[in-house]
Amino acid sequence: MSATTLDNRAPRPPAAATKPLGTNPKDMVGLKKVDLSVVPGIALFHEAMAMMDGARKYGPFNWRDNAVMARIYVAAALRHIQYWAAGEEVAKDSGVHHLGHARACLGIILDAQATGNLIDDRAKSAVLIEALDALNDTVRLGAEARKAAADGVNR
Q1: Per the record, which residues fall in region Disordered (predicted)?
Q2: What is the mean pLDDT of each run of 10 residues along the chain (155 residues)?
Q3: What is the C-alpha to C-alpha distance for residues 39 and 47, in angstroms, rounded to an integer?
Q4: Side-chain half-sphere of 113: how many Cα atoms within 13 Å?
Q5: What is the pTM of this model?
Q6: Which residue, among 77, 68, 65, 67, has the nearest Cα to 104 in the 3D structure?
């Protein structure tokens, strides 16, 4: 059976006969917009499951009705990440993947911030930011030194 009889459309021309990618006017517009296709679907699915669990418990988009405290959601996200890092895949109370819950917490923070419903109670500290940057530099320099030493041995 040919492709024409399967779906009543003419077969596509061979790839060599098509125009190069990015020449369609819609492509040129689309290339200038946020590309949601780079977000892994599975991550979105697990986040949606966590959001559905929260919607059942508290109502959908409840954080838009009353302002929420950033630290509550940061703490919840970190707890879910720690459970997952310790080897537990899904939350005992919901059966939803811990990383889906963590993503949901972070999504709520972003949405609450964007809609003016976030109580920003972070313990902001320029000293901690500087300390982490310095530690990252130390790790980077150590990795570069190990690579240089390995390159010297391999010559």
Answers
A1: 1-24
A2: 57 65 82 94 99 98 98 99 99 98 99 98 98 98 95 78
A3: 12
A4: 12
A5: 0.78
A6: 77
